[in-house]
Amino acid sequence: MPSASGAPLVVVTGAAGRIGRSAAPLLPAGWRLRLTDLRAGQLPGSGLAVEALDVTDEAACAAAFEGADAVIHLAGVPDPAATWEQLLPANVIGTHAVAAAAVAAGVGRLVVCSSLQAVSAPVAEHQVRSEDPPRPANLYGATKGWAELVGSWVAATSGTSVVALRIGYFNEQRPPWPGTTPRELAAWLSVRDAAELLRASVESDLREVDGGPVGHGAGFVVVNGTSAGRYRKADVSTTQRVLGYRPLDDAWAGEPLP
Ligand SMILES: NC(=O)c1ccc[n+]([C@@H]2O[C@H](COP(=O)([O-])OP(=O)(O)OC[C@H]3O[C@@H](n4cnc5c(N)ncnc54)[C@H](O)[C@@H]3O)[C@@H](O)[C@H]2O)c1
Question: Which domain range does residue 112 map to?
Answer without folding.
Answer: 9-243
